[in-house]
Design a protein that fits this description.
The structure is a single chain. The protein starts with a helix and ends in a 5-residue tail after the last strand. The protein is globular, with a radius of gyration of 24 Å. It contains 13 helices and 18 strands. The chain has two domains: 122 residues, Urease, subunit C, domain 1 (Roll), CATH 2.30.40.10; 298 residues, Metal-dependent hydrolases (TIM Barrel, Alpha-Beta Barrel), CATH 3.20.20.140. The longest helix has 22 residues. By secondary structure, the chain is of the alpha/beta class. Strand 17 and strand 18 form a beta hairpin.
């Protein structure tokens, strides 16, 4: 009897402590921002409070400055970011979380010496780093030989198993026979490839069906290879898929209500992609004027990845002269695309450079190429969210959106480079990083 009473008392105490703990949990957060760049407005605002409940933004209002002493929402946590600029979580629409710098680490080594499991483990570190850098959403454009591991990474994040950004993934990507590494080994050896090798109209349709059935959000194709700068400054190339093949792949993708991204750096790859009606042109180092017009007419997005050539020129001096040519061509294309009214979204090719480098390193390049700081920020917030079909959920700090919020010390409209030093990160209403002392 005595033992039974002790057990009952212990249960009551445990139950009471749980109820007390639940009753003292905060009802949400009040984030006080000294400055707010909300992702949609053309100007920043000052002294703004953001109310967060669960994983949603419930109110964005002018602050009173009095909440730190006595928050009116009762037990809501107050986060004082008076000396910070708050922004929507950043979005990178061209990444490779299963690559760890294919210039620094030999591409063949990753495919031949690293198992898919090992690469997936490294990818869990990459997605956490992306979150720490302030990127709360990524579109990951292929696994580079790691099969459907990106689908598993996305699912693990969605299920709360590992921390990471919201992700859309494109799994294996496609290219034609003889066009994508691994190449150059003995013809007697059967080696893995960084893509799914696809030939013919029927082969293209089958590959789309296979990749979507295994969980791909996007389809990706490699539309050209072997770029060569002509005397007139045009980046020429060798197209991979025929127009009929590309049209079949695009049609099958759209028929199943998905979208398709095209790696297209030069004249012919871009033209075939645009004619076939892809949804995004990736890289687009050179785009002919008539193709820019077609992109506007069809609503095709441009994801230029301009930082990568600068990076390669720095880390591989022997390529510097060739990279400088490409930089000049891409800067001209970027300016012409802006003038033509092409939709431009932020994408860096992170993974082609190491995940120890913040993808925000590209912002100064985009400003150098002609964007205002606000345009560059919006390319990585509301515009990127629009490209991903998620602008009703992310990309701006507005009532009803997911609570994806970051903060930096200083004013990124005055110095865009400070976006490489994010001090506060909230994704889905959960804090992953906060300034020291907060």
């Amino acid at each position: 009897m005595k033992s039974h009473c002790h057990i009952t008392l212990l249960f009551v105490l445990l139950f009471t402590s749980v109820v007390f703990a639940q009753s003292t949990q905060p009802s949400g957060y009040i984030i006080h921002c000294g400055t707010l760049i909300d992702g949609v407005s053309s100007q920043s605002r000052h002294n703004i409070d953001i109310n967060v409940s669960g994983n949603k933004i419930t109110e964005v209002r002018q602050g009173t400055g009095a909440f730190s002493a006595s928050p009116p929402e009762g037990r809501a946590y107050f986060i004082d970011l008076q000396s910070y600029t708050c922004l929507p979580g950043l979005i990178d629409t061209h990444t490779h979380v299963l690559l760890q710098g294919d210039i620094i680490v030999d591409y063949d080594e990753q495919l031949l010496k690293e198992s898919t499991a090992y690469r997936a483990i490294r990818a869990t570190v990459a997605v956490r780093r992306a979150l720490d850098f302030g990127f709360t959403a990524l579109r990951d454009l292929e696994t580079e030989g790691a099969g459907y591991a990106d689908v598993d990474i996305r699912n693990a994040i969605d299920r709360g198993i590992i921390p990471g950004p919201h992700m859309q993934v494109s799994s294996r990507a496609m290219d034609v026979t003889g066009a994508y590494p691994l190449l150059g080994y003995s013809w007697e050896l059967e080696l893995p490839h960084g893509v799914q090798v696809v030939d013919g109209v029927d082969g293209g349709r089958k590959a789309v069906r296979e990749q979507l059935s295994h969980g791909a959000d996007w389809i990706k194709v490699y539309s050209d290879r072997g770029g060569m700068v002509r005397p007139d400054g045009v980046l020429d190339d060798i197209p991979t898929f025929t127009l009929d093949e590309m049209r079949a792949i695009v049609d099958e993708t759209h028929r199943q209500r998905h979208k398709i991204a095209s790696h297209a750096a030069g004249l012919n790859g871009v033209h075939i992609s645009v004619e076939a009606g892809v949804d995004t042109v990736e890289h687009g180092t050179y785009i002919a004027p008539e193709d820019l017009k077609t992109m506007v007419q069809k609503g095709i997005w441009y994801v230029p990845t301009p930082y990568l050539a600068h990076y390669r020129a720095q880390v591989l001096p022997r390529t510097a002269e060739r990279m400088q040519q490409q930089i000049k061509i891409q800067q001209d294309t970027f300016r012409r695309a802006m003038a033509a009214g092409v939709k431009i979204a932020y994408g860096t090719d992170a993974g082609a450079f190491e995940w120890t480098i913040s993808p925000a390193v590209q912002f100064p390049v985009m400003v150098q190429y002609g964007m205002s700081p606000m345009q560059a920020i919006q390319s990585a917030t509301i515009q990127a969210a629009d490209l991903m079909g998620m602008k009703d959920r992310i990309g701006s700090i507005e009532t009803g959106k997911l609570a994806d919020i970051i903060a930096v010390a200083g004013d990124p409209l005055a110095d865009i480079s400070i976006l490489q030093k994010v001090d506060f990160v909230m994704k889905d209403g959960q804090i992953y990083k906060r300034p020291a002392g907060h």
